[in-house]
Amino acid sequence: MAGAGLTAALLRLVAVLVIACPCALGLATPTAVMVGTGRGAEAGILFRSAEALELAGGLRTVVLDKTGTVTSGVPEVAEVVPGPGVPAERLLSLAAAAERGSEHPLAAAVVREAARRGLPLGEPEALRAHPGEGIAASVAGAGVAVGSARFLAGRGIDLAPLAAAAERLESAAHTLLWVELDGALGGLLAVRDAVRPGAAEAVGALRALGLDLLLLSGDRAPVAEAVAREVGIPGALAEVLPGGKVAEIERLQRAGRGPVAMVGDGVNDAPALARAEVGIALASGADIAREAADVTLLHADLRDVPRAVALSRATLRTIRQNLFWAFFYNVLLLPVAAGALHPVTALPAVLRDLHPALAALAMAASSLTVVGNSLRLRRAEIGGRRGGGRGYDRRGTRR
What we know:
It is a single chain. Helices cover 47% and strands 18% of the residues. By secondary structure, it is of the alpha/beta class. The strands form two sheets. It has a seven-stranded mixed β-sheet, with helices on both faces. A hairpin with a 2-residue loop joins strand 7 and strand 8 (184-192). The two termini are 53 Å apart. Mean pLDDT is 82; it is low at 385-399.
């Protein structure tokens, strides 16, 4: 470098400083995240933070709540099975009167069915709620209890007379409400909650992305397993009390099946949504569930769950591409700016000794490359949300 002169040295110094400026590196991640979250918002998928967008791409297990999430959350009474010597109308009327004091969706279904049949509903007295199990009250002088088989069995009620009917109904994915009347078995009510449209398609898309799936439900195992089979989920966690959902998420995390996503909509899903690495709530659900979640699905469409995962993976892939291009420009041009090509006399002088103006142009080009690559996410067709697009494969690559 001897004899190069002060002017040449200063020009080379400025060129090196311009090339070394990490503008593209600083833009690589924020631009991709910004475009990715904006693309999600266009599709009705709201990520509350950049961290949520990034974590969704690394999920291994997705746990879906059954009632109100995989199913529509608007159950209907499908069959009334009275016990020995109990008129069906009396069974339904007394059960509905007791359930008037409950806000549970199953209770609302019983009340609606009694109203549809024009049955009289008395006022419940001495109402006692047992969370996750059932409710007990006095109606028109009769002792009434409505709840799970475990709840009535714990009260000393013999369920054997209706065991065969219960097995038949549970195998058909009906949730059972057992009814006690004056200390004896009054009968049971079979409630059916239809599977949410698109649930099976969403499950298929999640499995295609290579994710493990589990159905979480407070129902008995036969009911939960029947719903899981209907939508294609390979496993179900049944008879989980509201307070036990967090424990199930933690158990999966300790077993090495994380990162875990929890998909739910109800008040009792909120702790599990907060505990999972990524909580996903339906906008149609409870306010507290949306507050606890990292991702909110505005369309209440389960098919948006695989779309969110695919978008996250595409965003992470774009970030890696951006970082590559940012490093590529620096690694390639820093030696040139420092004079590595100066001895190569066959090259034009403008290339042998990189002028600061050209260095600035090169760094502007690197930033534009990063921004342009990030903007490609705006054209992402997330599993068909935008005009029936091609979607993504398990790596989040466009097909």
